[in-house]
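Dear Dr. K.,

Following up on our conversation at the group meeting, I've run the structure prediction for DegV domain-containing protein from Lederbergia galactosidilytica. I'm pasting the input sequence below exactly as I used it, so you can double-check it against your construct before we proceed with anything downstream. Let me know if the numbering doesn't match what you have in your notebook.
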Amino acid sequence: MKTAVVTDSTSYIPKHVRETLDIHMIPLSVVIKGETYREEIDITMKDFYDEVRNGDKLPTTTQPPIGEFEKLFTELAKEFDAIISVHLSSGISGTYQGAVAAGDTIAGAKVYAYDSELSCMAQGFYAIKAATMAKEGKEPREILAGLDEMKKHMRAYFMVDDLAHLQRGGRLTSAQAIIGSLLSIKPLLHFQDKVIVPFEKIRSRKKALKRIVDLLDEDVKKGKSLQATIIHGNRLDEAVQWKAELTKQYPHVEFSISYFGPVIGTHLGEGSMGLCWTIK
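The predicted structure tokens came back this morning:
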């Protein structure tokens, strides 16, 4: 049985990795000053953050039209028996439901939509795992079981740098943002029950990043073989430095660097940093 793997742009898997593993990508979009840009196609991360920094209001985001799923699935059904479609959390976007609905209309291939229950490269880990297993000739049920096992060990924590950004997006009141900024509070966020919620409030960026490392340390000590990715909001130099420090501290963990692209960056803002990890 031949299985194709699809994901959406918020997995932020590097293009060369997608091409090597034959991972097909459906883009979400951001709307800036009335113009729609397809993520990972029409706008780069840097250009996005430049636009937001200089703009009066936040962009909006849109999920892929169901027709885009139907078009891709129909094309893949000509060559593949099954399609596993991995998407960002159904709690923050209707993208997963779009894949489910489109899959029900396709003849010739069975579509398995998979809810990652989070986003960014943590979601990318699932798509890469699925594509690797598909290339090994694994059946869809085996692949999905592998993703479920990975999900048991998935951890992802994000630090928001700019509380004013959250306030502009309606997720904090002006008073909360002002008080938080005065106290140098850097909220740690994580996904719980498919939505982004506060994990802890921490004073200073340095302490927030150290808290994330402490959480990683707890899992490292369990002895599992882990892979991890640093995720940054237009802070590549800081991410590179953090990766060097973490690689030295945890030589047996496989670290990589990813980023918060336009869609997720709309919610978290420039300067955000995160770390996610799971089993290999």
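Two things stood out to me. DSSP finds eleven helices and 13 strands in the chain. The two ends are 24 Å apart (CA to CA).

Best regards,
J.T.
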